[in-house]
Amino acid sequence: MTIVTRFAPSPTGYLHIGGARTALFNWLYAKHTGGQFHLRIEDTDRERSTPEAVAAILEGMKWLGLHWDGEPLLQFSRAARHAEVALGLLAAGKAYHCYASQEELAEMRDAAKKAGMPIRYDGRWRDRPASDAPAGVKPVVRFKAPQTGETVIDDKVQGSVRVGNEQLDDMVLLRADGTPTYMLAVVVDDHDMGVTHIIRGDDHLNNAFRQLNLIRALGWPEPIYAHIPLIHGPDGAKLSKRHGALGVEAYRDMGYLPEALRNYLLRLGWGHGDAEIISDAQAVEWFTLEAIGRSASRFDFAKLANLNGHYMRQADSAYLAKASEPFLEKQLGRPLAPAERDLFVALMPGLKERAKTLVELADGAHSTFARLSPDEKAVQLLDADAKAMLGALLPRLRALAAWDAAAIEASVRAFSEEKGLKLGKVAQPLRAAVTGRAVSPPIFDIVALLGREESFARIAANSGLKA
RNA sequence: GACCCCAUCGUCUAGCGGUUAGGACACGACCCUUUCAAGGUUGAGACACGGGUUCGAUUCCCGUUGGGGUCGCCA
User: What pLDDT shows up at residue A467?
Assistant: First the structure.
């Protein structure tokens, strides 16, 4: 049997980080088993669903590298089929019309709350004849749920979970306007799509009991459930925007690599021995539902950053330059010239060791691509002694036959040895004069890549020294 | 409030009756070093509590406490 998983977000906002992990797990499980992974957009809430959100979700999935099989299914397009199933249930006596008003329902909830009883619909229309129907009121269709016994779910993550059926009420299948509710739509769509494994957040665990009863009433095969724990903020409370409940595009804009985010998300709630850096291929090979933890985990930006730094260090220079180009251009306030793109790539080995995000990468490159006037620390470095020292060094650099990092470094080293200075005493003022900063990628590389004229021009501008 | 779920270093986790309770991030120290990083070595740091079961509990059971989730004509 082919295993079919799905990710089914509702398009009321961006693809947030919790959803991204759910999608990742579904994707991995499908890959692991050689099955299929589908995407379904749950847009039955016409008030809150927007085309922008649909686009953001598709975009986020693509950026994260989670490719789905087939076309994304828009749930609302199947409203007629959902209604057909509900009406079938009605005809079979497994569902009924309910004419209770919103006011009645609210009273029911208040009364139950006061009495310390479970808050649920009391089934007042369950057995009333159609002749009792009040005139002019459009009814909803409710499911006739079992009222005794218990429903047990053998969840792949949570284990065996049971709940007394008296806790479950008769949920609405079709609204008064005839449109399907989520409860009906998921069940019908998962069935029609051939979904075999439902992997989703455990905020749906309680829904699963109701859905399972509906599936049984329909006589359809039961899916395998895996309810994964939610992701919390650093303080253990619900993930808020301030904490990281952002859309994946926000992570992209903060300069994280999709492969790093995948690795981070994978390790949040799932582990494989001591493995930390896990490639996609290994993840696919190792991923099982049984290895998913049962407790909620907290989002940790520091660990994400560390992972991102790792992936950046081992990434290809051209790839990184391309990925961080927009960040650099934003900082410079201008597009990069073709020659500068090459320079960016050439600078990359020294840059990527020093950054945890693409933004930091661009930060590191800023002082190479723009002529910055010396900041406070650079000014301190360029004191009178340092200028005198540089004044003696410049002619030797000017006289260099070959202008490359090795030759420049050799020359500066020889110079500092002669003068009895530590290399730092010479290299730091040079860095300050060339970049206007006390911190930069390796200075000899920068001087070499910038070229003789640009280097001397900058030194002249920042220290007044001419070579 | 009712129902459901969870509980190992600050964080992510390994552990599936007998371990000096392991790894990673973060943190401290040292080394390396042209700055900053990276890297190396190293240090500190956890089984929530109380009962059982057992020769023996971090591990199994019950309770307490603490956290989380769900109770819509939202999904």
Answer: 66
Residue A385's alpha-carbon distances to A342, A382, A453, in angstroms, are 36, 8, 24
Q: What is the pLDDT of residues A337-374, one digit of tens each?
A: 999 999 999 999 999 999 999 999 999 999 999 999 99
Of all nucleotides in the shown strands, which has a C1' nearest the CA of A364? B36
Query: Which nucleotides of strand B are protein-proximal, with an atom < 7 A from a CB?
Result: 1-8, 10-15, 22-26, 33-39, 67-75
Q: Which residues of A are catalytic?
A: 241
Contact (Cβ atoms closer than 8 angstroms) between residue A444 and residue A450 = no
Residues 361-390 of chain A with CB under 7 A from strand B are: none
* Distance separating alpha carbons of residues A283 and A265, to the nearest angstrom: 11
Q: Which of residues 281-320 of A touch strand B (CB under 7 A)?
A: 291, 293-298, 300, 302-303, 305-306, 309-310, 313
A121 touches strand B (CB under 7 A): yes
Residue labelled with tokens 């420049």:
A408
Strand B reaches within 7 A of the A207 CB? yes
Q: How far is the CA of A354 from the C1' of B30 (A)?
A: 22
**Structure ipTM:** 0.95
Q: How far apart are CA A49 and CA A75, in angstroms?
A: 11
The answer to whether A198 and A225 are in contact (CB under 8 A) is yes
Q: What is the pLDDT of residues A419-452, one digit of tens each?
A: 999 999 999 999 999 999 999 999 999 999 999 9
pLDDT at residue A242 above 60?
Answer: no
Distance of CA A334 to the CA centre of its chain: 29
3-class SS of residue A428: helix
Residue A174's H or E segment, with its range, is strand A172-174
> For residue A245, what are its two tokens?
């409940």
Query: Strand B closer than 7 Å to the CB of A414?
Result: no
Distance CA A127, CA A144 (A): 10
DSSP A127-173: S--GGGPPTT-PPEEEE----SSEEEEEETTTEEEEEEGGG----EE
Give residues 91-110 of chain A lying near strand B (Cβ < 7 A): 100-102, 105, 109
